[in-house]
Structure prediction request, 211 residues.
Amino acid sequence: MIIAIDGPAASGKGTIARRLAAHFGLPHLDTGLLYRGVGRIMLDRGFPLDNVEIAAAIAENLDVADLAGEALRTREAGEAASVVAAHPPVRQALLDLQRAFAAQTGGAVLDGRDIGTVIAPDAPAKLFVTASPEERARRRFRELVGRGELADEEAFYAAVLADIAKRDARDSGRSSAPLVIAPDALVLDTTALGIEEAFAAALAAVEAARR
Prediction:
């Protein structure tokens, strides 16, 4: 059973994916961490994020075991991930890794931007999780506040909202595997939903797909 979950930044797809994986006893891959890992390495080594060759080389040698730690969850890492994810060679380098994860015995849950359209187009259960830009910015704002990434609150929220808008435009407008809704995906708008409500709706959709 492969469960493919796509959606824009801070839509709640990661939380839903983790809950579904735990419910069904399936392995889970947050594919965004792959791109955050590449972006983080580029930043730490001082490489320009628009250097496609270096980014692709890092992606080809990326170790999934290293995709942990708060450094990958920062606002800076998220922005870097969105930039390197737009490079077709980077996406190609990470394609086989993601498909192998999805194809493992018993199935898996993957969340990202192109799971239901590129990585696992034949997945029997597909969700597209979204929310309004303002609500997604509020969620990301609260998350970053919790990590201490806070300066002036009002200005900081405005900056997060601007980041969300830029990432949406970049993710949807890139030439390689843009963020789009798979024709057979259920669209789940979590703008007005709490975590439990969103999970219940997602679970119902997956159960319906299984039947």
Observations:
- The mean pLDDT is 92.
